[in-house]
Design goal:
This protein is of the alpha/beta class. Helix content is 51%, strand content 13%. The protein is built from 11 helices and 5 strands. A 5-stranded parallel beta sheet has the order 2-1-3-4-5, sandwiched between helices. β4, α4 and β5 form a beta-alpha-beta unit. The chain is globular, with a radius of gyration of 17 Å. The two termini are 26 Å apart. 38% of the residues are buried. The N terminus is likely disordered.
Length: 220
C-alpha cells in the first residue's frame, strides 16, 4: 500500500502524541488542542500504549519520542507503520543524533523535531502541518546519511525507468521538504496530479516512500 499523505484543508489534523515526559507531553497536547486546525486525539506515555491504541485511532500524524522506556520510539514506529501505513510519523528527540534519526527514517518516520525547538510554539505546528500535507523535514546531515545508505543497496541492472522532466521537477520540490499542496501550486497542477507523479516516481525508483525517493534522487 502506498503512503499517501493527507491533504485536507477543512478537517482538523488528527494528532497522537507519544512522550514519556509528562511536562513535555502535556505541553504538546495543550498546544495542539488550543490551535485551530489541529486536534489531539490521544496521548501515550509508552510505546506499548501507543501500539495498543493508535492502530484503531488512525491519526494523520504521530509525534513520537525516541527515548521511551522499554520499547524505543524507533521500534514503535516500525511496528505502527505496518499497522497504519497512511499515518505520518515525526520523531521527537533531545539531541540531533544523526544515527538514531537515520534509523527512525528507515523505520518509516518522515522527519524529526528537537524538543527544545518543539517547545517554541509555531515550529511544532508547522512540522505537523507539513507532515500531514506531504512534507518531509530533513537537514543536510541526515539526507547525506540516507544517500550513503542507498549507495550500498544493489539494484538490478536496468531495472529503473527514466524519470520524466515533470517528475524531476516534482522530485526537486520534494527534496526541499515542500508539501504536496505547495508543489501543486508551484507547478500549476492539482494535488491529485502531484500524487500520481509521486506514484510513478516510486515505481520507477523502486522505493515506497517520499523519503526514499528524495534521497535516491539526491544520490544520483
Amino acid at each position: 500500500m502506498k503512503n499517501v499523505p493527507l491533504d485536507n484543508t477543512t478537517s482538523p489534523i488528527r494528532v497522537s502524541v507519544v512522550e514519556d515526559d509528562p511536562i513535555v507531553r502535556d505541553h504538546l497536547v495543550l498546544q495542539l488542542s488550543a490551535t485551530q486546525g489541529f486536534i489531539c486525539i490521544s496521548n501515550h506515555r509508552s510505546a506499548e500504549s501507543a501500539l495498543a491504541e493508535i492502530p484503531n485511532l488512525r491519526p494523520n500524524v504521530v509525534l513520537m519520542d525516541i527515548n521511551l522506556p522499554k520499547m524505543n520510539g524507533v521500534d514503535c514506529v516500525r511496528q505502527l507503520k505496518a499497522l497504519t501505513p497512511t499515518t505520518q510519523f515525526v520523531m521527537l528527540t533531545v539531541y540531533e543524533d544523526a544515527d538514531v534519526i537515520f534509523k527512525s527514517l528507515l523505520a518509516g518516520a518522515v522527519g524529526y523535531l528537537l524538543k527544545g525547538r518543539a517547545n517554541s510554539g509555531e515550529q511544532i505546528l508547522q512540522a505537523v502541518r507539513d507532515a500531514a500535507q506531504g512534507g518531509s523535514p530533513l537537514n543536510t546531515l541526515i539526507a547525506r546519511k540516507i544517500v550513503q545508505y542507498f549507495h550500498h543497496q544493489p539494484s538490478p541492472p536496468g531495472a529503473e525507468q527514466p524519470i520524466s522532466t515533470r517528475e524531476r521537477e516534482v522530485l526537486e520540490l520534494l527534496s526541499k521538504g515542500l508539501p504536496y499542496k505547495e508543489i501543486a501550486f508551484m507547478l500549476g497542477v492539482s494535488i491529485e496530479t502531484v500524487r500520481k507523479h509521486c506514484h510513478h516516481i516510486y515505481e520507477k525508483l523502486q522505493v515506497s516512500s517520499r523519503t526514499e525517493a528524495v534521497v535516491k534522487f539526491l544520490g544520483k
